[in-house]
């Protein structure tokens, strides 16, 4: 059963007990990510996440790791465009310890200058590694092409020149303006007791003063192109189709549409580009959503002589869905989506993350049955109408990397889509 409690200051606690489990996942999800940064702050949310593990006012970095690992657990964190999460997985008896440690790293980071310098170099290495990995960096460039000169289009890691300058005041300033109790959710799943979690939340977070967080800049999808020509073995091609936001009625339709296009080995793109034409080893499509926008992302890597054929065939497959999506394809994509949802919820970590994400979006946690019903409600007429709008509007962005000089221009691909 899912239970939700809100403290007087707006801090929320959500939990789901999973019978038969001996462990629990517990963490704090903060509604502050890369898109909440100003341009001069780009990368600060991710830097802050790194610094959480570098010591607090009462714990050293080593002690943070030891306290969790001494009881057989683990602790981690991540930064996305709209969220920063700090979480742990422990046995049932150690849930209070996990909440204590997570609360400490979120609320009391030390930001010692020496540790800032160490972690600065770690992040710069992370940026370098991403730039050296074509099928990582191309998605940052695709995001930039989709949302140019906007917070949502900036890289989560930030630019190296800014990372090189951030200090204590920058980190504390971001915490002070974005880490309010109304922006935080304590989420837990597994062997958990909700009443115990509420008492722990009151102890660690109950005295925080509420404040209004600055609104994120509204997103505006732009049909941009980013092309970086480099002497690589493969040409990397990524397309984005403008999609619905989290709360839009079409959000499940977009996910099913992406599944039909490139959701597995039986998908249209895999069958056409790899199995029939032999143009690539990897291709996929996936749908993602944000608070006020979304996109369907398509990726493939191919040889320099095949990049033009790959790009045009991809567009042809998108266009073809508007006229001949079959009931069998729809049923397969719906089944894959439901199976992925249900299988993904067999572990407490995925459940806790789902609780936090849905509570942040809806201010409630829709049941799994409700999600399954919305997936099943997408019928053939709905998916065809969505595909037709996608083709007629031709809202595309594109990023290319490698030997891509012969790849078609984005304008030509958009013209081909609506032809």
Topology:
Layout: E1 2-6, E2 12-17, E3 23-30, H1 44-51, H2 61-69, E4 74-79, E5 84-91, H3 95-107, H4 113-131, H5 134-146, H6 160-163, H7 168-178, E6 184-190, H8 194-205, E7 225-229, E8 235-243, H9 251-262, H10 268-276, E9 283-289, E10 294-302, H11 307-324, H12 327-344, H13 348-362, H14 368-376, H15 380-393, E11 396-402, H16 410-418
Please give a structural write-up.
With 419 residues, the chain is α+β, with helices and mostly antiparallel strands. 46% of the residues lie in helices and 18% in strands. The chain is built from 16 helices and eleven strands. The strands form two sheets. The protein has a six-stranded mixed beta sheet with strand order 1-2-6-3-5-4, sandwiched between helices. A five-stranded mixed beta sheet has the order 7-11-8-10-9, with helices on both faces. β9 and β10 form a beta hairpin. The longest helix is centred in the N-terminal third of the chain and has 19 residues. The termini are far apart. The model has no long low-confidence stretch (mean pLDDT 96).
Shape descriptor: globular
Report the biggest beta sheet as strand number plus sense, adding barrel if it closes: 6 strands, mixed
Beta fraction of the residues?
15-25%
> In percent, how helical is the residue content?
40-55%
Low-confidence stretches: none
User: What class would the helix/strand composition place it in?
Assistant: alpha+beta
> What is the helix/strand order?
EEEHHEEHHHHHEHEEHHEEHHHHHEH
Distance between the termini: 51 Å
Strand order in the sheet with the most strands: 1-2-6-3-5-4
Strand tally is 11
Radius of gyration: 23 Å
Q: Count of DSSP helices?
A: 16
Average pLDDT number: 96
């Amino acid at each position: 059963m899912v239970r939700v409690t809100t403290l007087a200051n707006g801090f929320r606690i959500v939990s789901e007990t999973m019978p038969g489990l001996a462990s629990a996942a517990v963490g704090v999800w903060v509604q502050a990510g890369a898109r909440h940064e100003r341009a001069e702050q780009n990368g600060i949310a991710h830097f802050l996440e790194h610094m959480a593990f570098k010591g607090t006012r009462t714990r050293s970095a080593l002690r943070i790791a030891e306290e969790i690992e001494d009881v057989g657990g683990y602790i981690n964190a991540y930064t996305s465009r709209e969220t920063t999460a700090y979480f742990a997985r422990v046995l049932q008896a150690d849930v209070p310890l996990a909440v204590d440690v997570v609360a400490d790293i979120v609320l009391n980071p030390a930001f010692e200058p020496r540790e800032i310098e160490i972690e600065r170099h770690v992040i710069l290495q992370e940026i370098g590694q991403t730039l050296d990995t074509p099928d990582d960096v191309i998605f940052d460039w695709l995001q930039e092409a989709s949302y140019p000169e906007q917070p949502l289009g900036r890289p989560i890691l930030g630019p190296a020149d800014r990372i090189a300058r951030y200090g204590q005041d920058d980190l504390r300033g971001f915490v002070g303006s974005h880490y309010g109790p109304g922006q935080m959710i304590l989420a837990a799943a597994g062997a958990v007791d909700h009443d115990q979690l509420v008492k722990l939340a009151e102890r660690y977070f109950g005295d925080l003063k509420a404040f209004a967080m600055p609104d994120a800049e509204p997103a505006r999808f732009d049909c941009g192109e980013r092309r970086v020509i480099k002497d690589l073995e493969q040409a990397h091609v990524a397309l984005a189709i403008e999609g619905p936001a989290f709360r839009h009625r079409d959000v499940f339709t977009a996910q099913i549409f992406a599944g039909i296009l490139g959701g597995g080995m039986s998908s249209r793109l895999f069958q056409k580009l790899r199995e029939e034409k032999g143009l690539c080893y990897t291709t996929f499509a996936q749908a993602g959503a944000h608070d006020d926008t979304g996109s369907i992302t398509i990726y493939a890597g191919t040889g320099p002589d095949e990049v033009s054929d790959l790009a045009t065939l991809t567009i042809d497959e998108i266009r073809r869905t508007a006229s001949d999506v079959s009931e069998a394809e729809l049923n397969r994509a719906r089944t894959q989506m439901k199976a992925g949802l249900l299988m993904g919820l067999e572990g407490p970590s995925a459940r806790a993350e789902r609780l936090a994400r849905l509570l942040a979006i809806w201010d409630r946690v829709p049941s799994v049955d409700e999600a399954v019903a919305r997936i099943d409600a997408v019928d053939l007429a709905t998916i065809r109408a969505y595909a037709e709008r996608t083709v007629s509007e031709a809202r595309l962005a594109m990023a290319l990397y490698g030997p891509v000089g012969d790849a078609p221009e984005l304008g030509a691909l958009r013209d081909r889509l609506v032809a």
